[in-house]
What does this fold into?
Amino acid sequence: MEKLSRMQNGKIDKKVKFMSSFISLENVKFVYDEQVLFEDLSLSIEEGSFVALLGRNGSGKSTIARLMNGLNQPSKGTVTVDGMDAANEDTVFEVRSRVGLVFQNPDNQIVGTIVEEDVAFGPENLGVSPDEIRRRVDDALAAVNMSEYKSHAPHRLSGGQKQRVAIAGVLAMQPKCIVLDEPTAMLDPSGRREVMDTILQLNRQEGITIVLITHFMDEASVADRVVLISGGRIEADGAAEDVLTDVDTLKSCGLDMPQPAELLYLLQKGGLSVSEMSINVDGCVDIISAALREEGAV
It folds into this structure.
């Protein structure tokens, strides 16, 4: 299926080919403690895609994560997962097995005294046979490059390693989609790289649908699609390159551009003939080099 990726301000970015919709929020209203967080929110996540939900703290990103998993129920509207109503009590456990949720703090998600026991916890609760659990645990730990730590105590692991174990625990339940709610917010740069490498591998090699909720621009820039949330609204929705170089929209939401794009923007304002924008370092270097050659500086 082919859809138009469209910014909320009316600009059409470009055509993007998507597979069938896997998660759909339609006209969702959500009220928490008498406060309306969303009034009429609609969002579709395509199967096999890598979508980043970007926004400032308090913008409602975590609420969307819990709606996708069925942990939160809309006050109005519908949330469907793989064709199932996430509010239906008869299918809620099936919904949660299809959409795994990884939280910000891995310590809140790890329950076992050793790594492999923790990863086995979810499948055991699903009633999976012991032989199948063994296979799933081994496969999940291999997928996040943590096999050698299967007999370690989780509390002795680094933050990045703990988060990879938490992801393995979700993988062992064989979800089609993983929603990660600020998974690197409590990690150092090394831990962030470990987790982001794992997320990319799961999407690119395993075909798992990824929804990454973050406020880090460099993390959002590796996604196929970026959805910008502000004040309970979707302010922009399109290819990462388009959303993350839209200066006016980002600034209005209190967000900065990725550093490579910010540098190009400042050089352009300073008079350098920058013909295009980029959100990655290599692209930034190529654009600056081309602009300098054009001006005879190199």
Residues 258-298 form one domain. Confidence is low (pLDDT under 50) at residues 1-18. The CA atoms of residues 118 and 219 lie 27 Å apart. Residues 189-204 form the longest helix (16 residues).
